[in-house]
Amino acid sequence: MFTGLIQALGTMRPLGGDRFSITCRNSSDAILQDLAAGDSVAVDGVCLTVTDVLPQGFVATASPETLRRTTIGQQFDRLVNLETALRVGSKLGGHFVMGHVDGVGCLQTVEQTATSWEMAFTAPDAIARYIVPKGSIAVNGVSLTIADWNPAINLFKVAVIPLSYAETNLQYLHIGDWVNLEADILGKYVEKLIQSGTHRGVDAALDAVTPAFLAENGYL
User: What predicted TM-score, i.e. pTM, was given to this entire model?
Assistant: First the structure.
């Protein structure tokens, strides 16, 4: 499990087959501290297992399914976002990111404002149903808040603060670039419970959640 708060940038290169080397830009990067074989590292939002530790990086493997569903096989000689797994007791500054990418999206627009960079991405249908305004989404492993959502064209917008923009590979994206997307795991569990909870009175509970109920309890 990860938080979506990027710790370092690295360069990914193929080693043949399903093996890849990831080299950190700086030998002092926090991600290299205590890194060991068997650890999980999110590489552009994709959870990979470390097989070998290098002086300034590590070697990891990716399954055929991972290569098919993500941009990992296309990231050679480009900077990738890196984050080690969340440790018990650590601060959770972003949101729960599993490192299980749901699909890829495409950057449509980027605009610098006085306080942020506003970026718009398209999302596949498999992710679109979990997208809600003010909800969370991971873009290349970066925890972001959805600022706007257009369901008619599956387009969502995020506002990336200067710190996140400067310390992640979002700053190097160009219009038309593909990114890894992971929807919020909480939405997936809610969907599962609703679909399987008919015999436990879930439908009745949902019927009680009316606009009047939401307004009375301060949600509207």
Answer: 0.84
